[in-house]
Amino acid sequence: MKTGRPIFAVAPMIDWTDRHCRYFHRQISRNALLYTEMVVADAIIHGPRERLLSFDAAEHPVALQLGGSDPDKLVKAVEIAAPYGYDEINLNVGCPSDRVQSGTFGACLMLTPETVAACIKAMKAVSAVPVTVKCRIGVDEQDPEVALPELLDRVLDAGADAVWIHARKAWLKGLSPKENREIPPLDYDIVYRMKQARPDVFVGINGGIQTLDAAAEHLRHVDGVMLGRAAYQNAAVLADVDQRFFGAPEAEIDWNALRDRMMAYADRHIAGGGRLQQVARHMVGLFTGLPGARRYRQILSTDAVKTGAGPEVIAAAFAAVDFSGAKEAVSA
Fold first, then answer.
1. Quick one: pLDDT band at residue 306, thresholds 50, 70, 90?
2. Which of 24, 110, 174, 236 could cysteine-pair with 139, CB 3.0–4.6 Å?
3. What local confidence, expressed as pLDDT, does residue 177 receive?
């Protein structure tokens, strides 16, 4: 990950950015960097590795986000993940959920930057791909002007290749994970200042970014930008990413081709023992704002969960949409 080369990414989101979500997003943008949901190092070591780590080759570039605070376990997880061919390994230092706190990782690691540095140093020693950090600007009563630069300096000294900063504090007590995404105020300026102080370091920004126009504005100050729920809840926003941020020729997305690719993917998944709903649930928000979008959502939400549901449900849902204003809706 290099400065001067802007990166647009879809943020890691627990229970959302699984392999089916990433495959779907990749059909809309060829270049956006995609992240797995956080996978705990212990789960990789002791759990179903193939289910946790395997992905379709079409997903590249794709990064694996790990959760953990034990350098030895993280090293083992990186070694186990290596044959799967991820393009980046990211350490989660930002998730505020109770189950993450109980494992002493995620956002609570902001309180122990020396631990994060030890983890990064150990992971770098065994990783053939970039090792990065995704953090908050601080937690609880921390002063972000002190806590954030200390964390950054430590992890960069340990060899981190990039830092992604969610521009909010996390409150470990008193706020739910959902509230932690909405209530603590955004402070984009402090992220900009971290970049200004470290011009040779890749610094990316995350948090509350809703549109590609807003993403473009952030890229005037930092190297990378992540959209999270805005990209998930209306995936059509990704249709302009390649042209705006990666220099691809301007082109309208072929919705029929997208439909056919997702039907073929769903068919393969079902043939392997999966269920249509596992794929279709990530597609529900695709046509927000278009005529027929409500019926599209209804079909995917109700018919895809039925026993024996197949790819024809996707075809029926797409048939309900009026695509005549799709370009304007995507660009809005």
1. very high
2. 110
3. 80
Give the integer Cα–Cα distance in Å for 63 and 53.
Answer: 11
Using one digit for the tens of pLDDT, what is the confidence trace for 87-122?
999 999 998 876 665 667 899 999 999 999 999 999
Report percent pLDDT > 70 for the chain.
95
30 SS3 class: coil
Q: What pLDDT score does 327 carry?
A: 56
Q: Cβ neighbours of residue 271 under 8 Å, at least 6 residues apart?
A: none
Quick one: tokens of 238?
Answer: 């990704």
Q: In terms of DSSP H, where are the helices of the chain?
A: 19-28, 41-46, 49-53, 71-81, 98-102, 113-126, 144-157, 177-180, 188-197, 212-218, 229-233, 241-246, 255-271, 276-280, 293-303, 312-319, 326-331
Q: Is the pLDDT of residue 1 over 70?
A: no
Coil vs helix vs strand at 243: helix
Instruction: Encode pLDDT of 218-229 as tens digits.
Output: 999 999 999 999
Task: Spot the catalytic one: 95, 108, 119, 135.
Answer: 95
pLDDT of amino acid 103: 63
- Please say whether the beta carbons of 91 and 120 come within 8 A: yes
CA dihedral of residues 154, 159, 161, 163 (deg, nearest 10): -10
How many Å separate Cα 86 from the centre of its chain? Answer: 14
Widest Cα–Cα separation across the chain: 57
Q: What is the DSSP letter of 15?
A: T
What are the CA-CA distances from residue 239 to residues 7, 25, 161, 260, 289 (Å)? 15, 9, 28, 17, 15
- CA–CA distance, 166 with 94 (Å, rounded to integer): 7
Segment 196-212 mean pLDDT: 97
Confirm whether 135 is a catalytic residue.
Answer: no
pTM for this model (two decimals): 0.94
What is the spatial distance between Cα 300 and Cα 277, in angstroms, rounded to a whole number? 8
Contact predicate 8/39, CB 8 Å: no
